[in-house]
Each structure stands twice: as structure tokens, then as C-alpha cells.
UniProtKB/TrEMBL annotation, chains A, B, C, D:
The keyword Metal-binding does not apply. Residues 36-55 bind DNA. Keywords: DNA-binding, Transcription, Transcription regulation. InterPro entries: Homeodomain-like_sf (IPR009057), HTH-type_TetR-like_transc_reg (IPR050109), HTH_TetR (IPR001647), Tet_transcr_reg_TetR-rel_C_sf (IPR036271), TetR_C (IPR011075). Residues 13-73 form the HTH tetR-type domain. The keyword Transcription applies. It comes from Nannocystis bainbridge. It holds the Pfam family TetR_C_11. This is TetR/AcrR family transcriptional regulator.
DNA sequence: AATGAATGAGGATTCATTCAT
DNA sequence: AATGAATGAATCCTCATTCAT
């Protein structure tokens, strides 16, 4: 019966995921350039060299992290997209509420911000995020609007632009919290924003 | 008054501004960490050492650049805020149009993106931008909405959230261009977005 | 006699030899510093860790390789030395021819070059090679010359230096090929060099 | 009048040469891989970073060093080639003597050995050395032999091979000292070797 | 006996900052 | 005031070596 702690364990299967997970945290906190691999290693509980067993370079690790982070978001999108049926008047509030809920706690806002920050230096990642996340969400919303227009529920107009009218304020709200924190008097309560904006964009803010 | 040719002091006072101006460009292009002071110096037409006559550290220079960039934005805000009078139905389209125009060409979107990207590492800058730009814009819009509510033009509701409903999509549109470029099928035409969104947020997208 | 398949001990005794053999190749190709043990292991068909069952350090393995490579050369020397009898006028051409033949194909030249290259960092190896190879060859030749002098075949003079006169050009020819390749217009044909030099050193190049 | 030692001096002109000079020493001592740039810097009396003001990479510095080392040799060749006139019987002893003298003290033997050692990893350098040093020497000697043949002084035969007969033993002698040191009983006295070999190659070692 | 995942010391390289000119 | 050569701390990455399996 040994209880001597081995200096390390072999975890060939689990390692890459553990490392990427730690990497996401550190990259999100410090950005690409600001991240020291030493810290990633520490956070992942491995030695510096171990990173290089699974990733060729820091950039590689960053890409892997960004891709993995994407998975989180895809997951969130799917959750939001589920039950995409009904009149637009019912759907928009529900979708925005769900989005508000999803964003509230998760790492998603921080990840989104990191992608914004680093997309300049990693245009290929920007493209992937565009195709996998942004385009997907906008396609969903655009289709929703177009179908509603076909049913006469929504007045004419470019559905892609209307999709932005629907989703834009929520994204801005999320980024606001991420960038300026919750202390600002303008920091929106995301749930309230979902409610207010649903009504605003559906019925208009003008009183009649 | 001597006629000795001063070798350097051609523009003793202009120097800092020239440097900061060059710095904005380079920081916007490469981010804080990605920026080499050599390049800033080159772009400003001075030697590396000269930077240190006016700024203590790279961070200092960055702060100065971010502050200066802010001025550009304040200017834009003022332009947009000018003629802030009339019914909300008239004002919103005009404001969004103007904003779309301002953003179309200028360095503003790139600057905004840089601020988003670096605000994590420079929270004090985030605060300044919050106070000087974001709060100002939102205050303006919030007041506009509140006054319209007082006049019975706009239905009740938290005017701060409604302000986000009005402005959010435009900001998202601008960031979209900045991050993903104009080639995406979802890249919004900013002018069209201004028009569409004005109607959407004022009258609602629901047909009646 | 069991038929349990031993997974590893196929050739318990052969292993070190196989490893050393692979090591010679890799060290010769890449030099000591340029050699990665991973590659040696791969080439030997074993795992990296296995090397350490037989050799304490990379240096150790290198020494073993250099020693083993020496054996090859001793063998070659013996072949050349065989039938060391007759007048010097008969022997020199035969010896040089044989040397030319030996060197033509084998790994020997590359090994010699490696020893030259690494002897600075491994003076002990230099000594071994000196004692086992160089001194042996030179002793042989020196004795040959001395005996011929005793018989009055060869004129007086330090036989050790004359031995260099006999052997030197062949070594230089071999190194030339090794270092500069065969494409150079000066790359000597080793067989022709053996013939020419035999005559030159025996009869002199001066016409009489 | 200050006598405070400045922490450093500006020596834009002198620096590269100083660095290369130090580099030659260190590379010759430790080989390419074994050389630490820290040591080169120390030896050159500059900081590590300074190396990179003048040379892009370690390889670059090595190439520069090898090229500079070449200059030394070219110089030596020219000295030896000077006064290349007279009968071959006069010339050969003189040339070999001079070569022996040149080699005795200088860094040349060590440099030659380094080139042998590293030419495998730097084939381009091998080529340069071939063209600039080896080919030049052999051309000189070959011409000398050919002209002597034309005058009937030297018997027929490929002059390029005879050039090797003349020069080879000296090179081997030099390398012997470099690789095995002067303690070996076989370590040739270079001057004596020059004398002995001159006679051997001119008149032959066979007594008549 | 054999494996190969894990380790971490070591070294090349970058670049903000300093300071002799 | 201006310069840019010089500095050296900081960090990525490699690879010989160890050791849990």
C-alpha cells in the first residue's frame, strides 16, 4: 500500500483537454500576448514542457483554446435555438430571455470579448467564429424573421437587418458588463433588457 | 532672434501630438502588446529615444493615445448630439444616420475595438471611456427617451434600457465590419441598418 | 520450453548492439549535438527509455558508438595490413589501392570525419582513436619504411615522417570527398590517386 | 574631466568586427552547437542583446565568423603563393616550409578543423571554403605542376592528383596536431615534415 | 525488461528602456 | 532636445533524462 505521491501521473487522454481548459482561462484573462505558458502549465497542473507534447507552439495552443471555446458557444446557441417555433411575438421574448440567462453566469461573455480582442491578430479564427457562431445565429434569426414576414406577421424589410435589430442590444448589454463591469449606472440588467427590448423591437417604442 | 538653424526644435510643442497620433495608428493596428515602439517612432518620424522625452513608458504612451483617441470620439458625439431637438420620431433616424455616416470612414470603429480589446489590461482606461464616451452617449439618449415619455410620445419603460434598444444595433453593425470585414453576407450596410432599425425600434417590426 | 510469447525479450543480448549501430548512423549524420535520442531510438526500433537501460547518458552512448565504429576501422586496417611482406615498391601501391577500395563505399570516411569533428569535445575518444587506429596504422607503415631502409631499399630519413608522406594524400582524398562531395573538379578519384601517389612517393615526381 | 567609467561605449564601426572575432574563438573552441551566445557576448565585452544588433541569428553570426576566418586563410595563401616562380625543385620545399611556418602558431589549424566539423550542417559554408580556399590552393599547385611538366621537369600524370601528393601530408600533419596534440610520438614536427616530404615527393623515397 | 508521458534546466531571441554622444 | 547603440530581463521552446505503468 503506497501513499507516496507520484511526481506525476500519465494522463494521455485527459491531458489535452485539461490543458486547453486552463489555457482558455488564462488567455481570456490576459490575452494572447499577455499569457505566459508557465501560467497555463501551472494552472493545468503540468510542467511547461508538457504543453509541447500536445501543442506545437503557443499559437497552436491558443487556436485550440479558441476552437474549444467555440464549442461552448455552439452549445449555448443550440440551447437557445431549441423550440424555434411559434409566432415571432412569442419567440423573440423567449429567445432573448434564454440568451440573457445563458450569458449571465458563463465564461461566454469573456470568451466573446477575447475573440474580439485577438481576431485582429488571428484572422483565421475570426473567420471560424464568424462561420460557426455569428453566421449561425444570424441565419437562425433571419429565417425566423423571413418566415414571419411570409406569414404577414412582420412588415417588409431586409430580414438580415431586422435580425440585428433583435439581437444587437443583447450583445451590447453583455459586452457592457464584460468591459465596464456591473457597477456602472448604465450597466443593464440583462433580464430586464430582454423584456424591454422584446417589446421595443416588436411593438416599437412609440406610443399609439 | 538668432538665425542659427536649430537642428531639432522645429516643433518643440508639436512633437508630443505627432507621436501620439502615430501611436494611435500603430496601437490600433497591432494592439498594445503587438506594438513595437520602434515602429511608433518610425511612423512619427523621430528616434526611439525621443519617445521617452515625452512619455515615461510604453503604457504611458498607450494611455495618452487612448485618451487622444477619445477626443476624436467626443467630437463625433458632439456632432451627433447637435440639434438634439424635435420629436423622437424625427430624431432617432437622424441620429442613427449621422452615426452611420461618422463610422463609415473614420478610425473610430478601429479605436473602439482597440479599447474593447485592451480594456481588460487597462481598467482605468475602460473607466475613462465609460465616463467620457459611453455614459455621455447613453445619457443623451436616455434623456431623449425620458423627455419623449414625459411628452407621451414614448410608452413607459426604463429609458436607459430603451436607449440600448436604439443604439445597440448600430454599434453591433460597426463592430461586425471591424471584426469580420465587409465580405460576409451578413455584413450590414450601415446606412440601411440605420433606416431599418429606426423604423423597427420606433414602430416595431410587427405588422398591424 | 514454453510457448509464452515474450513481448520484449526477443533479443535481450542483441539490443545494445542494435542501439549502438543505429546510434553510429545518427551521430555520423548529425554530429553529437545535432543528434536527438528520439531519432536514435526510432532508428533502433526501441523506445527512448530503453536507451537508458543500456547507456547512462547521451555521452555514454556516443562513446560506445565511437568505440564500436572503431572496430570497423580496425577490421579495415587488418585487411589492409594482411600480407605485409615484400619490397616497398610492391607494397605501397597495393596498400594504397586496398585503402582506396575500403574507403570507397564504407561508412569509414564519415566516421573519420565525425571523430575529427567531435574529438575536441571528447578528448578521451581522440586518445582512443589515436592509440587504436592512427598509431597502429602509422606503426605499421613506419616499420615497413624502417625495414626497407634497413634493406637499403629506401633512403635514410625519419621513417615516421615518411609514413605520413605515403599515407597522407589518401586520407586527404577521402576527407575531400566526405566534406566537399564528388562534384568538385578537384575531387580526386581515389583509385587513380592511389596509383599516382604510389609512383610519386616512391620514384618522386621529378623526371630524370 | 570625468573618469567615471561609462557603462558602455558606442562603437558602431568596431563592434561587428570585435564580435566576429570573439565568435571565431568561441565557435572554434566549442563548435556551433556547443557555443553559447552568452559566452560570445562576454568574450566580446558586450551584452547578449548587442549581438542581435549586428547579426540576426546564431547561425548568421556563425556564418560571418566562418567567412571572416576564411579571410585569415586567404591571407595565408597569398603569403605562400607570393614568389611563385622557379623550378619545382626549388619551389616545393619553400612552399611547404612556409606553410609549416604559417600553421605553427596561428588559429588556422583550429579553424580548418571547425570547418571540417561543421561543414556537414552548413553545406553552403563548405562550398564557400571549397571555392575560396581549397580550390584556390589546388589550382595554384596544379598549375605549378602542369607548368613543370610542360618544361619537362616533372614526369607526366594528372597534375591535380600530384598536387595532392605534394600538399596532402602537410595538411594531415596539421590536423594531427590539432586533433591529437603534440604529445603523441607520431605527432610530426611540421618543419621536419616539410623538409622530408619535399624530398620524398620530388625525388621519391626509393634509393637509387 | 520495456515503454513513452512527463519533467525542467538551459539557451536563443525580443524589445522596452537607458544613456553616452 | 534628439539620437540610436547598448542593455538585460523576460519568455518561448527543446530535448536529455526520469519514472509510473
Amino acid at each position: 500500500m503506497t501513499d507516496a505521491k507520484p511526481r506525476w501521473n500519465r494522463r494521455k487522454e485527459a491531458r489535452p483537454a485539461e490543458i486547453v481548459d486552463a489555457a482558455i482561462d488564462v488567455f481570456v484573462e490576459n490575452g494572447f500576448a499577455g499569457t505566459k505558458l508557465t501560467e497555463v502549465a501551472q494552472r493545468a497542473g503540468v510542467a511547461k514542457g508538457t504543453l509541447y507534447l500536445y501543442f506545437e507552439t503557443k499559437e497552436d495552443l491558443f487556436r485550440a483554446a479558441a476552437r474549444q471555446a467555440l464549442a461552448t458557444n455552439l452549445d449555448a446557441i443550440e440551447k437557445v435555438a431549441a423550440g424555434f417555433d411559434g409566432t415571432i411575438t412569442d419567440l423573440v421574448p423567449m429567445l432573448l430571455k434564454r440568451a440573457a440567462g445563458r450569458m449571465g453566469d458563463s465564461r461566454i461573455p469573456a470568451i466573446v470579448r477575447m475573440v474580439l480582442a485577438e481576431s485582429r491578430a488571428f484572422p483565421d479564427l475570426a473567420r471560424i467564429w464568424h462561420d460557426e457562431v455569428v453566421a449561425r445565429v444570424l441565419t437562425l434569426l433571419t429565417r425566423l424573421v423571413a418566415e414571419a414576414q411570409a406569414r404577414g406577421e412582420v412588415r417588409p424589410g431586409d430580414p438580415k437587418l431586422l435580425a440585428l435589430s433583435i439581437a444587437g442590444p443583447m450583445l451590447v448589454g453583455v459586452l457592457f458588463h464584460e468591459v465596464f463591469g456591473a457597477e456602472s449606472p448604465f450597466a443593464p440588467d440583462l433580464d430586464a433588457l430582454a423584456t424591454h427590448h422584446s417589446e421595443a423591437v416588436l411593438q416599437g417604442i412609440v406610443d399609439r
